[in-house]
Records
---
Amino acid sequence: MIRKVVSGQWSVLKKCILFTVSCPLLTTYYLLPSTLFMGCVTLTPDQIPSETSQKITQTSFQDLDPGAYEEQSLHFKVKAYGAEKARAISRAVEEDYNRIMQDTGLYSFIPRGLYGITVYSNREEYLKKTGQAEWSGGVAVGNAIYSFESPYLNGTLAHEMTHLIFYEFMGNTSQNLRWLNEGLAMYEEYQAGTSHSLSDNLVPIPFSQMVNLVPATERERLVGQWYHQVKEVVQFMVEQGGRLGFSIFLNQLRSGESFNQALSLGFPGLWSDIGALEKSWLLSKGL
Ligand SMILES: [Zn+2]
């Protein structure tokens, strides 16, 4: 049984239905022991636990043990062991959420419901109850995130939260924007202050490859470079191009504009196409 502590403006329990499973909406957040690099891969529909289909997201994986607390806030329903811990996580994820909204300028975005966050006590409980791979640090399915207590928790939650918001806001368009989605998630994780180390040296990957690369395995070194670069590029776009421009850019992409058209509309006078963006970014890095 979960003890419930309700706070925030909205105290009404909302049940959040999964997005369709045909949309590969389950991402796992991996910790790679060899390089201390983490990656996030999207699982195909057949890899998504069948019991999640058409059911409430929060029941996708086994719940916390009896005695856990539930803290409800404006955008989240956090389950954790200990009332104070649940409240602290709740405060942190609301801060993450607000920062993501500021960075993306998506102030008009209204989630369909509360995002569920389940924080297991440790890696052992997480692995046992979610069945994720040994190196997994967190998993997002539907509109819920599962992770465990660790020094990296807030970064993991910020990362996966970004994916959920991106999927929900961008809809089907998100499937072709893997690099942008991942770059934004990495950027938000970095800002959460508890991110993992990125690869030391940034060896630029040509943008023509960067936008098409879908890492097949997170173990390859190139993937580490790719995650590092997409984070840097998104950070550059947001901080140098401006958050208002980034918001316009996202909205144009969502409405079906081409990448170059969205770029030129979002950042007029700055970047007319991806080639201009690449050149500008390389210059900023002294490369
Ligand atoms: Zn990711």
---
Amino acid sequence: MFGKRAVSESKPAPARAVERVHAMDSMPPVVAAKPGTLSAAVPPPASQPFAADNRSEDYYQIKATIFSALIDTIDLAQLAQLDPDSAREEIRDIVNEIISIKAVVMSIAEQEQLLQDICNDVLGYGPLEPLLARDDISDIMVNGASRVFIEVSGKVQLTNVRFRDNAQLMNICQRIVSQVGRRVDESSPICDARLLDGSRVNVIAPPLALDGPTLTIRKFKKDKLKLSDLVRFNSISEAGARILGVIGRCRCNILISGGTGSGKTTLLNCLTAYIDVDERVITCEDAAELQLQQPHVVRLETRPPNLEGQGSINMRDLVRNCLRMRPERIIVGEVRGPEAFDLLQAMNTGHDGSMGTLHANSPREALGRLESMITMGGFSLPTKTIREMIVGSIDVIVQAERLRDGSRRITQITEVVGSEGDVIITQDLMTFQMQGEDDQGRIKGRHEGTGIVRPKFWERAAYFGLERELSEALDALQV
Ligand SMILES: Nc1ncnc2c1ncn2[C@@H]1O[C@H](COP(=O)(O)OP(=O)(O)OP(=O)(O)O)[C@@H](O)[C@H]1O
Ligand SMILES: [Mg+2]
């Protein structure tokens, strides 16, 4: 038994907790917080900027003292057996008692905040919890115990969230990865995992990370952005979005290119909305992020090697296996290695409407990267053959970019039209033209058509009865 409640409920009483609590009587009281220093520490409402979190130095000191008194008092093994609500109750009782014994002056709100933080430390992901609870954060980046950055509205900012020390941070990393059956420690210091809510997690620990465990979380958005949201955010114009709609519906093979965090996966997810409900779709990802709405979807995920270095299943294994699963469309979350070859082959052999994303800064660079992935994958094919294969498979490249003001835009829709000799010919259908900045530093610009009235996929669009829609969207782009 542990804690005050356990004590009062069990007879005869004298349990470890009580002895400890009495022992604390003789300790000097914690320095009382200056009135008002803690009151600002109430968790910020989800939509407010993080500046609302003003946990002060005093707060952290008080919390550390109360926390260590709590840890001395409770039996963590028994606490772990309780359901979360009862465990919280238990912690609440003991913390309240410690606060009163140590004569810490706190308002009710401050006390609630402290309780919340301590419960998060003991039962959840500690200081990460308030960040995980916020929907406006897209990334959380923890560089050792005392530097936690977040990305909000495309801007990276330093928070004053911090962990007690690197040991606590490492402990939380362990807690996260162990939930999906993985392990991270000095002997296997790199680990990819997922939170239960689907957020993508990467941990790299010392000795590889020199300044303490480094944790990166791409927060899972419950309400995935739709193409209409991207139009609302000015990421793309309405006419541009209509063109993307036609491209998706008429089963063009699409490559989404962009830098890190530029919105590639989000865009891919948007485009999957145009897949018919009766199509059999297979998705291959390193960490499942896509959320397809269709009923006939098979989701596959790669697997890292186990501790003996065995059992790994990579993206190429998945894509090759896909081909034996009678897919109509194959969707590869991120193409980054020799699976490029298998994806192109699939696109070439009747799996129209397949899609993938790739890291590159322009459509041309994306083509170059595809080629080098195939070359480096050990396929000894002449350059010309590889390029022919690319031309025969990829119909459209959509470029996503995160601009310097933090906004994400679709900056190009480019078609692969053919080749001359061994040079791949492409043409832009839409580009984003920057027109300067407004007075708040936000980039202004326009999505413009390039005057193409009959793209190469015209016939395809016509086959699906979409030529009118395409022609209207292209006209709208020129306006
Ligand atoms: N057009 C957009 N407007 C606003 N936010 C966006 C937009 N596109 C994506 N985001 C947000 O940006 C974050 C990163 O998006 P996403 O995961 O799609 O990027 P990515 O390019 O796939 O990143 P990575 O290279 O890490 O895989 C997400 O939180 C997403 O919700
Ligand atoms: Mg991605």
